[in-house]
Design brief:
seven-stranded antiparallel beta sheet, two-stranded antiparallel sheet, about 375 residues, Beta-lactamase
Length: about 375
């Protein structure tokens, strides 16, 4: 396999300033087929990034938490069709944000009870501030911090749609983590370690990095007024009040690839099974019916994310964005993927038998330059297969 073209993509991405650094890993069903990196861990520094460098994987955490939840389903401890309040009674107190009277939020009861499956599929009605102007306004009106604060107060945030009425990306997986805790009798970090990261040997993946691991984390980079990348002081709360199933994990490209390979292997990696084949098949199957993943989601906070325009024809499985059609020269129909707010991205193509991931640490999410790097890496990888 000639990977020189992928090396070139990475080098040019850093040289052009599209990203301050980038790490890429890919595997087929037999093991790693590509590993490469370019750029320094800290812009202007000498220490290079590598497959063992630590990153905030942000919403790539969601797939890990989803696997932990699906394991509870397989054990008969969790019913996907049950109302969330069956496992977390406090959920019954939540209402739907239905507009504002002046600066006062107007709330009403939801038209139906949200189910656990709706949490997994982002159809329960929850949002994120960066995609919801109403939540930005609600947080300002109530003095409530956003979910990255690490404060448990976020669990009082209202729904912004009735359950089951539309795909709305939001704090669903944080609530799912609470459900996992309730049914497993373990805190989410323990459930994840015992069910996912421990069995797969993902020893560098954690909600609470060690001091040494923290020193190795790539800082979140922002562009200065001159357009150059510079490391920022932006950081997640190092002592959060809960384990965030939606965004709380730190990992390395080499570590997370083990989970990708397990999904590629229909739930099994080198003799270790974390999910049954039927469960993995369901994860890669449309679970939102006639609803669609929005073709374009406008930003409500340009500092956090640009508009996210996936395009038409996308569905959602369990923890995975699914493309309904082949992407020419790239992933095949039915591939599963997702990303993290600080611009990490993975995909699993079970048809071709390949999985890959691209890592950097910048804000805002999905700038055109970063999205182009994703595209160029994937195109070069498939051309080399």
């Amino acid at each position: 396999m000639d990977t020189a073209a992928i090396d070139t993509v990475l080098a040019e991405a850093v040289a052009s300033g599209a990203v301050p650094n980038v790490t890429v890993m890919a595997a087929d069903r037999d093991g790693v087929v590509y590993e490469g990196a370019a750029g320094p861990r800290v812009a202007g520094g000498d220490e290079p990034v590598s497959a063992d460098t630590h990153y905030r994987i942000m919403s790539m955490t969601k797939m890990v938490a989803t696997v932990a939840a699906l394991q509870q389903v397989e054990r008969g401890l969790l019913d996907l069709d049950a109302p969330v309040e069956q496992y977390r009674p406090e959920f019954a107190d939540l209402q739907v944000l239905d507009g504002f009277d002046g600066d006062t939020p107007r709330l009403r009861p939801p038209a139906s009870k949200a189910t656990v499956k709706q949490l997994i599929t982002h159809t329960a009605g929850f949002g994120y501030w960066f995609f919801s102007p109403d939540l930005v306004r609600w947080e300002a009106a109530t003095g409530t911090p956003n979910v990255l604060s690490g404060s448990e107060v976020i669990f009082g945030a209202p729904l912004i749609a009735d359950p089951g009425t539309r795909f709305e990306y939001g704090i669903n997986t944080d609530w799912l983590g609470r459900v996992v805790e309730a049914v497993s009798g373990m805190t989410l970090d323990v459930a994840v370690k015992e069910g996912v990261t421990g069995p797969l040997g993902m020893n560098e993946t954690s909600f609470a990095p060690t001091a040494g691991q923290r020193e190795d984390v790539v800082p979140i980079h922002l562009r200065g007024v001159d357009g150059a990348w510079a490391a920022s002081e932006i950081e997640l709360n190092p002592q959060p009040e809960y384990y965030a199933g939606g965004h709380g994990l730190y990992s390395t490209p080499r570590d997370y690839l083990l989970l990708q390979r397990a999904l590629l292997g229909n739930g099994e990696l080198e003799g270790t099974r974390i999910l049954q084949e039927a469960t993995v098949e369901a994860a890669f199957t449309n679970q939102i019916g006639d609803l669609d993943f929005p073709a374009a989601i406008p930003t409500a906070d340009p500092a956090s994310t640009m508009d996210f325009a996936a395009g038409p024809g996308y569905k959602w499985g369990y923890g995975l964005l699914l493309n309904s059609a082949d992407v020419p020269g790239r992933r095949r129909a039915g591939s599963g993927a997702w990303a993290g707010l600080c611009n990490t991205h993975f995909w699993v193509d079970r048809t071709t038998g390949v999985t890959g991931a691209v890592y950097t640490q910048t804000l805002p999410f999905v700038t055109p330059e970063v999205f182009q790097v994703y595209t160029d890496v994937e195109t070069a990888l498939y051309a080399a297969l």
